[in-house]
Amino acid sequence: MRFTKMHGLGNDYVYVNCYEEKVEEPERMAKQLCDRHFGIGADGLILICPSEHADCRMEMYNADGSRGAMCGNGIRCVAKYVYEAGLVERERMKVETDSGIRRLVCRVREGRVYLVDVDMGVPALFPRESLSAGGSSFSFTPVDMGNPHAVLFYSDVDSVDVEQIGPAIENHKRFPGRTNVEFAQITDAQNIKLRVWERGSGETMACGTGACAACAAAMAMGLVKRKVTVRLPGGKLDITWSKADGPMILTGPAKKVFCGSLCP
Length: 264
Ligand SMILES: N[C@@H](CCC[C@H](N)C(=O)O)C(=O)O
What we know:
It contains four helices and 19 strands. By secondary structure, the chain is α+β, with helices and mostly antiparallel strands.
């Protein structure tokens, strides 16, 4: 089976072109391929498939084999892949996900996609809540970006024990389907510093839906303006949400690292 390793700000996935390849048992394959010592090493597995409703379809699995409905960094890489492989010949395209169809615009230089704008849809925000985990109490904003998020605010995210708090909230009984967890620091009215504990993958270098969720929560609380740069360990994403009932636009890079094939 041939694969391509790609990433958006270090949020890395193994991509398989399912126009040509067939992946049996993708949950098991995801666990095996994502292992950073015994496999290729990645945050998840993304299958690029034909679609009856859009230009192509993205099917994503986290590193633990669980299915994710949406991936903001992954979908930009899918757009880059299908454009550069000639599977979709337009810079404007629609990609089907488990949480609906997303519209994307590829920015191209010398035939290569270097930046992608994604219409992430309208964030669904819920009132702030509190929960107790590991003997501490945490306040968070639940946000649905097509996948679930719990956004927490801190004055200094570098000092947060993400490895301990992340899984405690991810697996808390408040979230029967588990959740992604955002640790956000408002730097100023146009900048957020963010770390993300991803459901099924652990702390990642970046999370597109997580960055959008953090912006939605911060914007709704009046902590930042409607156009924000989010700085994550792997780099920065630009996010614009012009009005509360309109779509959020995510802009960021997509990179190919290597192509390979699995040994028989
Ligand atoms: N890295 C992603 C989100 C991947 C899915 C997530 N872990 C989930 O289970 O919902 C992104 O860039 O949005």
